[in-house]
Amino acid sequence: MPEYEQFDPAKHDQDTPQETFGPEVLVDKHEDGKIHVITMNRPHRMNSLGGNMGGALREAFVDFRDDPDARVAILTGAGRGFCAGADLIETAQTRQRAAQAGGPARPPQRGSGAGGLSPLSEGLGLWKPTIAAINGYAIAGGFMIAMQCDIRVIAEEARVGIAETRWNMGGAGWMAPITRQIGMGSALELILWGDTQYDGQRCYELGWAQRVTPLDQLMETAMDYARRACDMAPRAVRNMKEALYRGYYMDPLQGQAFGSSLEQNLGGMQDSIEGPLAFSERRRPNFTDT
Predict the structure, then answer these.
(1) What number is the average pLDDT over the span 50-76?
(2) Measured between alpha carbons, how far is 94 from 52 in angstroms, rounded to an integer?
(3) I need a labelling partner for 51 at 20 to 30 A (CA). Which of 145, 149, 250, 288 fits?
(4) Gap between the Cα atoms of 263 and 256, Å rounded
(5) Domain boundaries, given as residue ranges, for the chain
(6) Cα-only R_g, the chain
(7) pLDDT of residue 205
(8) CATH classification of 234-280 is 1.20.120, yes or no?
């Protein structure tokens, strides 16, 4: 199993104090709070979704959603893994105790293992852009969390897979979007053959990852995406993201009407004056989301 360096926020121009959502999730804010770097921090368990990891992740994303200064989030993992999915050691212990007590060893309710993060955008009303910086293994629920992000940047050495069928785990509730991301054949290969793993290059070839990089360039590549997002008009970004996510399932005419109705909120904005003015003056726009 290859070794992965641990992400060090100090190497990436951190400019505000680190926040914690319990010991399992750390948040570093950059560019005057516009960029939130959310780090899953259970490296001793490959950042598996045990303890309070799922709940802490949800809190971090809600904080990002509600922060008026925040424009874009990057999600990554500490140590040599992105996220190994459910903590199977904890799961085994819990189910054994339930069986010994005479109760059924039931699978968790939908979304409980990841703190209700699926679907991330629609479920939380999160229309700001999110980036997954996949530094190592993204397996099962780890794949699911990366799948929920808008952009995926992956290290060459990383591996992704969906191992539920290997261990008789549930997961069908979050898997449907995979078919539109990588196609039915590849989705079936990953899901039904739970020992299948794709490396970074394969994820890029399928279009699931937008960039594949050496590990030592991963965070800088993700930060470059994030800084570029900070130059965009934030309300227009939120409108476009919501229109794309919700419109995907609509009839074309319904999608057109929905998108047009969203954009009524651009009227009267200072940013609607600033955008064309900055273009005409050949300068970088200063969007304030007002």
Answers:
(1) 95
(2) 15
(3) 149
(4) 11
(5) 9-230, 234-280
(6) 20
(7) 98
(8) no
